Amino acid sequence: MPPTLASLSTSLRQSFLAGLLALLPLFITWKVLSFAFSTVDSLLGDRLNELLQRTTAITVHVPGLGLLATAVIILCIGYLSRKVFFKRALMMIEAAINRVPMVRSLYAASRQIVSPFTDNAKLPFSKVVLVEYPMVGRHTIGLLARERVTDDPDDDRVVVFFPSNHLHLGYPVLLSRKDVTEIDLSVEDAVKFFVSCGVVADDTLGRSGGRLAPASSLAPAMDPQTLGVK
Q: What's the pLDDT at 227?
């Protein structure tokens, strides 16, 4: 292929790739919003619009009404869930669910996923760490999931979660505290790093924040039985 045609072909490929990368975020945003309006909004939106048209002079379909109603319902449930009487009602509902064999397993698994995000004391992934893993000479960035595994003061193990770029996929690993180094990187920036497959990163990536605090200086572990270790 002549040099002129070769350079033209390369330029076209680069321009096409640049245009694709520029449109991809817009396409993803559009698909998410389309799903929200076509699926979530239709759950309540269609019924609310029918009610408005029957009881008022409004004759047009109001978009986003279902999303607004869903947000209001979630806010109300969130507010009520902080009240004592509503907590007791939820406990009664959970007790009823725990009596159903198949449903209780699904509900218990869902609760284990959600509960860390609803309890500040159990807030996951407070630190970003660097570990020489899975072999000597290879370093992997992970998220510290548990500062302690058991209440044993001589047990210095921690749980580090190594996510993929899908975030919800990954694997937790029990490691010795001395093998884990905290790095000066926020969890938000670490998430960007994982999602972009390592493309998005700044100069704080390799800056060490020091070793983790000794296990003896930490509060007792919470629910150590969940890991099945002694």
A: 47
